Amino acid sequence: MESNTKAKLTVGLLACFGLAWGLFQQALNASDLAIATGLAFGQLIAIIIISFVIMTILEWVNIFDLKTNAILTLITLVTIRISYVIVL
Questions:
Q1: Whether 51 contacts 11, CB under 8 Å
Q2: Cα(5)–Cα(28) distance, rounded to whole angstroms?
Q3: Residues in Cβ contact with 26 at an 8 Å cutoff, skipping those fewer than 6 apart
Q4: 27, 62 Cβ separation under 8 angstroms
Q5: Per-residue burial over 24-49, b = 16 or more CB atoms within 10 Å of its CB, e = otherwise
Q6: Under a CB-based contact definition with an 8 Å cutoff, are residues 75 and 82 in contact?
Q7: Degrees to nearest 5, angle at CA 83 with 82 and 87
Q8: What is the DSSP track for 8-44?
Q9: What is the pLDDT of residues 43-52, one digit of tens each?
Q10: C-alpha dihedral over 23, 35, 49, 77, to 10 degrees?
């Protein structure tokens, strides 16, 4: 597996674990267990997809190295999630 793909998966999983408590708290507020499970997995998959998109854009721009791109992506994902929680 290429280092770029490994970095994308790692950043996506780190963001998922970093945001997991909030995701599962929000999912547990749902009335049905199936809805809660679907909501949690859907949000985790969305975070992984967003991390792939952000990392791909940063690689395409080619300003920073891979480590800096990974850190910027992780910070962006956490910021987006925190702002989403504050708005709701």
A1: yes
A2: 32
A3: 39, 43, 85
A4: no
A5: bebbeeeeeeeebeebbeebbeebbe
A6: no
A7: 120
A8: HHHHHHHHHHHHHHHHHHHHHTSSSHHHHHHHHHHHH
A9: 778 878 888 8
A10: -20
Could you report the per-residue pLDDT of 15-45, keeping only the tens digit for each? 777 777 666 676 677 677 777 778 778 877 8
Distance CA 41, CA 64 (A): 31
Residue with tokens 């507020």: 29
Type of residue found at 16: C
Task: Give the pair of three-digit tokens for residue 54.
Answer: 């952000």
The count of other CB atoms within 10 Å of the CB of residue 83 is 10
* Identity of residue 4: N
